């Protein structure tokens, strides 16, 4: 067979080129038929709407959960409790409401691994792993605390806090000087609602206890980029202790302004006034000097009338 043949118009055409061109035409015809068959069998799926949440994952208010979605108490990074490399307990807003916690001592009394000891009617000390807890933080900012010179820190009302984070063990990464006991981080509420919200409550209890609270949130402009919030509480109660009475007033206000989509400016003020009467300021010995057991009545109080 000759290598080349004369074709029409005087061109020389290679026989293998003619075969390839014919094969390509057949392939395109088959492919177009397959595509047409596929188009006939295509079904349209329903649309899926994906909604994102840009809220702070560490915030617990409004979640209705006893477990936070994330916490930055141990490392400064928003990690789940499983990812956090330390023993952490977060007392959420929902749990504090359900258990009606009215002081930091109540919160610590329900925290695993924390023991609470009261020196008298006003002062409490918290211990973890055999050591006294002296590392306190407000919104992640470290501050010192010494129960011997307490000014009511252990009696702060948790009504103004979104959560209380407790990291057991050394916490030098977040508090500077490490402490083998634990650290307590009190995280305040913020004005994060773009619509008006109000929460009012009133309650009565034994020993002539009366308590009222108010929590109001509202946007301060039409866009909701500037928001305000006010939280207040008043409590008046007596006690099983003789002639002891305490009045507590709490006020907290905060304004949050969104400067950019990722920057928020917060300005706040909180105030608490405790007015105890008949404070014991000390305890009683359990044993006499001769080794005999004392038998004090439970209501005995050495405080001034």
TrEMBL record:
Compartments it resides in: Cell outer membrane
One Pfam assignment: Plug
Signal peptide residue numbers: 1-37
Disordered as annotated region, ranges: 50-71
Gene Ontology MF term list: siderophore uptake transmembrane transporter activity
Entry membrane topology: Multi-pass membrane protein
Protein's UniProt keywords contain Electron transport: no
One cellular component (GO) term of this entry: cell outer membrane
Keyword terms: Cell outer membrane, Ion transport, Iron, Iron transport, Membrane, Receptor, Signal, TonB box, Transmembrane, Transmembrane beta strand, Transport
Comp. bias regions, Polar residues: 55-71
Ranges for domain TonB-dependent receptor plug: 81-181
Entry's family note: Belongs to the TonB-dependent receptor family.
Name the record gives this protein: Ferripyoverdine receptor
Organism encoding this protein: Achromobacter animicus
Record lineage: Bacteria, Pseudomonadati, Pseudomonadota, Betaproteobacteria, Burkholderiales
Originating gene: fpvA
């Amino acid at each position: 067979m000759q290598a080349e043949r004369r074709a029409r118009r005087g061109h020389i055409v290679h026989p293998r080129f003619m075969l390839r061109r014919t094969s390509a035409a057949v392939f395109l015809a088959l492919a177009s038929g397959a595509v047409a068959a596929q188009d006939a069998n295509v079904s349209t799926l329903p649309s899926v709407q994906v909604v994102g949440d840009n809220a702070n994952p560490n915030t617990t208010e409004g979640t209705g959960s006893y477990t936070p979605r994330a916490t930055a108490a141990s490392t400064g990074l928003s990690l789940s409790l499983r990812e956090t490399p330390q023993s952490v307990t977060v007392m959420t807003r929902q749990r504090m409401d359900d258990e009606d916690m009215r002081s930091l001592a109540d919160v610590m009394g329900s925290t695993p691994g924390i023991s609470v000891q009261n020196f008298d009617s006003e002062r409490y000390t918290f211990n973890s792993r055999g050591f006294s807890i002296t590392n306190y933080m407000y919104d992640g900012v470290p501050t010192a605390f010494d129960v011997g010179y307490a000014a009511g820190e252990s009696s702060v009302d948790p009504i103004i806090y979104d959560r209380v984070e407790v990291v057991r063990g050394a916490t030098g990464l977040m508090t500077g000087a490490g402490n083998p006991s634990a650290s307590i981080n009190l995280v305040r509420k913020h004005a994060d609602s773009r619509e008006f919200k109000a929460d009012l409550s009133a309650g009565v209890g034994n020993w002539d206890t009366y308590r009222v609270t108010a929590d109001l949130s509202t946007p301060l402009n039409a866009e909701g980029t500037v928001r305000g919030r006010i939280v207040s509480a008043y409590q008046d109660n007596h006690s099983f202790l003789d002639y002891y009475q305490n009045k507590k007033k709490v006020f907290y206000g905060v304004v949050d302004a969104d400067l950019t989509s990722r920057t928020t400016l917060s300005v706040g003020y909180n105030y608490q006034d405790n007015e105890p009467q008949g404070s014991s300021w000390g305890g009683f010995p359990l044993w006499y000097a001769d080794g005999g057991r004392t038998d004090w009545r439970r209501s005995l109080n050495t405080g001034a009338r």
